[in-house]
Specification:
It contains 3 helices and 6 strands; from the N terminus they run ββαβαβαββ. With 135 residues, it is α/β, with parallel strands linked by helices.
């Protein structure tokens, strides 16, 4: 399986501080680019057969900062929110961005320290999942 660049816009001028967003299609879950956290504008498209496989692929990682699904099925959305192991779970929305009044943090190797934000500090020993759904 070979991943290929499916989208990468032109760089604006000569700005050396800019990293162009890149979408890699045809990626496999075994590829390094799909297995590691990349803190940059890079994303992989991994084709799966069904919701079961999508959840299995999403959870087959040591990391768990965020996970998202795009669907028209409310049942699939609810199941994904329940079964995805990540600190932020989104439906029909980007997997980045937080609300300052909600806890933020990943699971597994993505987690670092407490998710203390405002009144949430008292719940330090819980394992929260913040879910967003755009419908």
């Amino acid at each position: 399986m070979d991943a290929h660049v499916a989208y990468r816009p032109a760089a604006p001028g000569q700005d050396k501080q800019f990293m162009r967003p890149t979408l890699l299609a045809g990626a496999g879950n075994e590829m390094r680019v799909a297995r590691e956290e990349i803190f940059g504008p890079v994303s992989c498209v991994i084709r799966v057969e069904d919701l079961d496989e999508a959840i299995a692929v999403a959870n087959d990682t040591a990391y768990g900062l965020s996970a998202g699904i795009v669907t028209t099925s409310l049942a699939a959305a609810e199941r994904f929110k329940r079964d995805a192991r990540a600190g932020i779970v989104t439906v029909n929305l980007p997997t980045a961005g937080t609300e300052l009044h909600l806890p933020f943090g990943g699971t597994g190797a993505s987690n670092h320290g407490p998710r203390e934000q405002g009144g949430y500090a008292r719940d330090f020993y819980t394992v929260p999942v913040t879910c967003y759904t755009g419908w």
